[in-house]
Design a protein that fits this description.
Structural class: mainly alpha
Number of helices: 25
Number of strands: 0
Strand content: under 5%
Order of helices and strands: HHHHHHHHHHHHHHHHHHHHHHHHH
């Protein structure tokens, strides 16, 4: 892995990072809905006489999302995370109210633990875990000098969150914001068309995207899993319909992988014209209810009806096995989309709808360590300053460092923190001393917040500037210090916001200068996990074949592609390393697949002995022995297929094809296995 050249990651913004076009589609509706929710939350908080009404506006700006399902899903996890954080705060105060050191130490460990869990989770589940962490900073730390007020502060915090969530939900229902489930259905339909075209090109022997482009397509498909979590909050019978969407995703990934294999077979192996023609003709038909076994049987019957003496060889068997898998999974795509749209029952097929994810525990540990170190440094500075207002900096630093854990580029988030907070302070100065003194009605205050909200929302909708938009939009009401009795004292304003800026500086130092993201190390850890899984498969104790293994493979490769692109994916050496790792993943899934077929064959009386022999070879034989023995085993399965009954015949063909796949994949990976030192005991 040392041969890759790592490019320096740019964390500072440039004009090219600005949105192009400057106003993304849907920005008007998103901005106006967010503004209306902010106004409603502030009005309710002012009416309820909350101690910190700005917290309700902060909640709105944190959970605001372009789609209704996104906002509702994030609101749900925000509510749960707040409840956990408030409970932990009360517990810590009850245990260590007289011991500041133990109190801060407990807060630091809780933050680190929640950060670790949040880094392993995905989507808004991750946000809920992180929120449970930094809520303790907003509640427990704020009452560190007055522990008797913990219940009042906790209640105020929970009230602000509840008001913000209710405001967003009400505005979304009132205005009919775009629905996440409809966008999910449209995206699945679009991807299904792209996947069908990919399969058709592969079946015809036309050129198909290479490994890097195919992985990018798989990453786009897997990204739809996030929309599934959003859609669950909008639709009835959400369990069944969400499973349908996952089934469609699994079907697409299966067709994608099978299509790649078919293109490779047609390019490098001799497949009979009869088999190619019949499979291509079957592909042009509409999807039916056949599984892979029935598809192979139908193809065999059709070919033998035309040529009675036809019997497939190992190459044809490999082609038929991959084609049957691809053809049968087209049904899963159509069934899954139909189940999502209409809640149509799909029987046992929905049990296949299990998505696996690759978790980087080392990265999660680094994130937790970053939060622990940053919190400790800030706590030391606050204690040294001996200023009561300094605890605001500690709370803010904990919040920024925790939220940065889920950012793909933590340095970009750190830069967004210092720029967003600085911009918020500058705008707050103007508003607090030149605008608010001339405002006496809430309606005027709402109009003043309109341009601020539009700016934050437009920045949030652009990936490159979202960190700036988030830090500016979410923390501006707190920096402004909105309250029922607005304070215009310059010394109080400076004392409060100087510590907010210090928290931004600490976050910048921790995220950008001390712990910058390293694509090379992330790629190395992904490569190591691929190697570990392959070693397990070579020893016969790897993960079983199925939807979870397939989705884990492509999720890992999608992450690998992300970090490879950050190392300059156009460099030949980086593309070469990526292709090698893709081939190793293909070998691991091929080994899992052949074991699945052999396990089924072991239940058949006429295939049991041969399946047991093949199983032993796959698990223990050396690579040279496998290279010599696998063709013989494949041919023996095909000999049995000549006289076996329908199911046994189909299963024998599938076993022969998968054994040929193992042989050819091992041959393709021979140099890679030696280069990375994998499977040493079997060389």
């Amino acid at each position: 892995m040392s041969e890759g050249v790592e490019t320096r990651i740019r964390w500072w913004p440039v004009p090219a990072d600005l949105p192009n076009p400057p106003f993304p589609p849907g920005w008007i509706g998103f901005s106006l809905r967010s503004w209306a929710a902010v106004c409603l939350a502030l009005a309710t908080a002012f009416w309820a006489q909350l101690d910190s009404p700005a917290g309700a506006a902060v909640t709105v700006m944190i959970i605001t999302q372009p789609l209704r399902g996104q906002a509702l899903s994030k609101a749900l996890y925000r509510l749960v995370g707040t409840a956990l954080g408030v409970g932990a705060s009360i517990l810590l105060i009850a245990c260590f109210s007289q011991d500041r050191g133990m109190m801060l130490g407990g807060c630091a460990l809780w933050l680190a633990g929640c950060t670790y869990i949040g880094s392993l989770e995905r989507h808004f589940r991750s946000y809920g875990a992180l929120l449970a962490g930094y809520t303790i900073a907003l509640v427990a730390i704020n009452v560190i000098d007055t522990p008797q007020n913990v219940f009042d502060v906790a209640l105020s915090r929970a009230s602000c969150v509840a008001i913000g969530i209710a405001s967003v939900a009400f505005i979304n229902m009132l205005t009919g914001s775009p629905k996440a489930w409809q966008k999910l259905a449209d995206s699945l339909e679009a991807k299904a068309g792209q996947i069908r075209a990919f399969g058709r090109d592969a079946m015809r022997g036309d050129s198909v995207p290479d490994a890097m482009e195919t992985t990018a397509i798989a990453g786009e498909i897997l990204s739809l899993s996030a929309q599934i979590t959003y859609a669950r909050t909008e639709i009835d019978r959400s369990t069944r319909r969400s499973a349908g969407a996952r089934l469609a995703i699994i079907g697409m990934l299966t067709v994608l992988g099978s299509g790649r294999a078919i293109a490779h077979i047609l390019r490098h192996k001799s497949v009979s014209a009869l088999a190619h023609r019949h499979v291509l003709a079957w592909h042009e038909l509409r999807e039916d209810n056949s599984d892979r076994y029935e598809t192979v049987g139908s193809l065999m019957d059709a070919m033998q009806a035309e040529a009675p003496d036809y019997h497939p060889d190992a190459h044809d068997a490999h082609f038929l096995e991959r084609s049957a898998v691809m053809l049968s999974n087209r049904l899963h795509i159509a069934t899954g989309i139909d189940t999502l749209q209409h809640a149509t029952p799909a029987g046992n097929a929905l049990k296949l709808a299990q998505l696996g994810q690759h978790a980087d525990h080392v990265a999660a540990f680094i994130n937790a360590l970053r939060v622990l170190l940053g919190f400790s440094i800030t706590a030391g500075l606050c204690i040294a300053s001996d200023q009561p207002a300094s605890m605001a900096a500690l709370s803010q630093a904990a919040l920024i460092l925790t939220l940065a854990s889920t950012a793909l580029d933590t340095s970009q988030f750190g830069m967004g923190a210092i720029l967003g907070l600085s911009l918020a302070v500058a705008v707050a100065i103007v508003m607090n001393y030149f605008v608010l003194p001339h405002i006496a009605a809430f309606g005027a205050l709402a109009l003043v917040f309109l341009p601020h909200t539009i700016f934050a929302c437009v920045m949030l909708m652009n990936a490159r500037t979202s960190a700036i938009g988030f830090n500016y939009g979410a923390f501006f009401p707190i920096i402004l210090g909105l309250s029922n009795h607005q304070d215009y004292d310059p010394l109080a304003f400076i004392s409060r916001n100087i510590f907010y800026l210090i928290s931004g500086v600490v976050a910048f130092v921790i995220l950008v200068l001390l712990f910058p993201p390293t694509p090379k190390s992330r790629r190395f850890r992904i490569a190591a996990s691929i190697g570990q899984d392959l070693e397990a498969q070579l020893h016969g104790n790897g993960k079983p074949a199925g939807a979870r293994l397939l989705s884990l493979k492509y999720d890992r490769l999608a992450q690998l592609l992300t970090w490879t692109k950050r190392m300059d994916a156009h460099r030949r050496v980086n593309r070469h390393v990526f292709n090698r790792l893709v081939m190793l993943e293909d070998l691991a899934t091929t080994l899992a697949r052949v074991r699945h077929y052999l396990d089924e064959a072991a239940a058949s009386p006429c295939l049991r002995l041969l399946a047991t022999e093949a199983h032993g070879l796959i698990n223990t034989a050396s690579f040279p022995t496998l290279d010599h023995a696998l063709p013989q085993i494949s041919n023996r399965f095909l000999d049995i297929a000549r006289t076996a009954r329908d199911h046994e015949r189909n299963l024998a063909v599938l076993c022969a094809g998968s054994l040929e796949a193992v042989r050819s994949t091992l041959e393709d990976n021979r140099s890679t296995l030696r280069h990375f030192g994998l499977g040493r005991r079997r060389w």
